[in-house]
Amino acid sequence: MNADELHRFVEEHFPQAQDFCQVSQLTDDSIELHLRYREAYLRPGGTLSGPTLMGLADTAAYLLILSRIGPVALAVTTNLNINFVRKPSAEDIVATGRLLKLGKQLAVVEVHIALAATRLLVAQATVTYSIPPAKS
Amino acid sequence: MNADELHRFVEEHFPQAQDFCQVSQLTDDSIELHLRYREAYLRPGGTLSGPTLMGLADTAAYLLILSRIGPVALAVTTNLNINFVRKPSAEDIVATGRLLKLGKQLAVVEVHIALAATRLLVAQATVTYSIPPAKS
Amino acid sequence: MNADELHRFVEEHFPQAQDFCQVSQLTDDSIELHLRYREAYLRPGGTLSGPTLMGLADTAAYLLILSRIGPVALAVTTNLNINFVRKPSAEDIVATGRLLKLGKQLAVVEVHIALAATRLLVAQATVTYSIPPAKS
Amino acid sequence: MNADELHRFVEEHFPQAQDFCQVSQLTDDSIELHLRYREAYLRPGGTLSGPTLMGLADTAAYLLILSRIGPVALAVTTNLNINFVRKPSAEDIVATGRLLKLGKQLAVVEVHIALAATRLLVAQATVTYSIPPAKS
Questions:
Q1: Distances (CA, A) of D7 to D14, D26, D114
Q2: Per DSSP, which regions of B41-120 are E strands?
Q3: What is the per-residue pLDDT across B34-87, written as a single tens digit (0 to 9) for each?
Q4: Cβ-based contacts under 8 A for chains B and D
């Protein structure tokens, strides 16, 4: 699937998520998502909340894997490990995912989350998805 | 801080979070949070969303650490690792946090998230917080 | 497999590992391994080395999973996450593994590593194994 | 410290480790280590053992951090998360570490481990070190 097909897949299956972020780049083994800042993502202290960043990392991994295996809504996250390295200020951010492994049962994606304007790293995550066996 | 003081601290500093979950038990090195099911936490397929579970694990760790070090709003998550072991159905869940380490710089909490009714495990997380140096 | 069968399996398939540690307890969903202190495990500063603790956590997970799925030498570690919470002094240690999930494709084990004498926790790990599809 | 100073530091403080691997590249925020294959690193099945890869990831992070903060033997690993993405065959490997964060209390390094000949990725790790407070 290309970026347009991914967007249509999200619209259809995850309607509440379609405003969450946009696919700004997609290659064979990488993806870039752009998250537009909203007040709802803030936590006290004026930084973007942890769940917002974790949700973005998870979404980057999911869409990158889908773009390779096709519209299988059933792939599920089995592990997510995230390191918060800098407090993200209240601005747009980008998540860049790189496919480390795409096996029959498991896929692993490394995600870097940075401020959109300066590309300063705010978090790094590694996300593992379990891929359902192909039906025959 | 005891459970009541924790609730008041959350009300004051994280007003939008006070309806998220309730402290149902608190000891010297453990905490139990109860999350009441809401439709907003669902993702397609009828399971509780990953960010909901990750936010709950993070909150359990934060409140347990606060109960020990006092109302220091500045403690920040540095690492969160979560394993999703079963799809959580649309029902109330409980998170049980256990303090593994409370050092001067770092605190580590292990969190088990289970269905409230059956105590069936749905996720396990380990959360590390950085503790700001005490001012002297 | 019970503890004796596990030991025989290790002797046969991992001869160099059979002196590494002993299974001191085994139930349906838990295992306890005892590691006898040796100088070879030390790193400068007189503490047990990280790779020794990581190897012990991995072994605990592996043997617990094997005891449930039978002698499948091909199960492989896909993820290991470890938190070092206290410097382990030069003494015997025990690792306690608990099965969090045993699925068709993945198994997840939580491991606590403590000093054998005082049961003081020194590390906590979560280990995920991929289970090869059963041949039909 | 540059690569030569790092090697001398290892020789002096970790004499048993000096044959383990060599620093083949060192920049301000990255390091490359070369591990020469030895039979001792094998596990049954002819693949490099998990503890060998975990020890290599940890060493890469340690030396990269030391090169920046100076010869502080007391920096300690607090968290190591590793994903094994391919079985490493019995050959030389390289570990490439990148500094994600260097704070006053914590440093985070991302490590990619690949076969030296083909640069095929076999594991990815994220390693967190706690940095002891500077004495004043």
A1: 10, 12, 22
A2: 42-43, 47-48, 76-84, 93-102, 106-115
A3: 998 888 777 767 788 888 999 999 999 999 999 999 876 678 999 999 999 998
A4: 17
* Average pLDDT estimate for C84-95: 92
Residue C82 pLDDT > 90, yes or no?
yes
Residue C99: left if φ>0, alpha if ψ -120 to 50, beta else—which one? beta
Q: A130: closest CA among A94, A111, A104?
A: A104
Of C43, C54, C83, the CB nearest to D54: C54
DSSP H/E element including A81: strand A76-84
- Structure ipTM: 0.91
* Chains in touch with B (≥3 Cβ pairs < 8 A): A, C, D
- Chain position carrying tokens 């453990």: B30
Q: Rounded to 5 degrees, what angle do the CA atoms D56, D61, D67 make?
A: 120
In b/e form, how buried is each residue of C123-134, taking b as 16+ CB within 10 angstroms?
A: bbbbbbbbbeee
Q: Please tell me the distance from the alpha carbon of residue D107 to that of residue B125, in angstroms, as a whole number.
A: 22
What kind of fold does domain D3-130 have according to CATH? Thiol Ester Dehydrase; Chain A (3.10.129)
Task: Reply yes or no on whether the pLDDT at C71 is more than 90.
Answer: no
Question: Are C84 and C123 in contact, with CB atoms under 8 Å apart?
Answer: yes
pTM of the model: 0.93
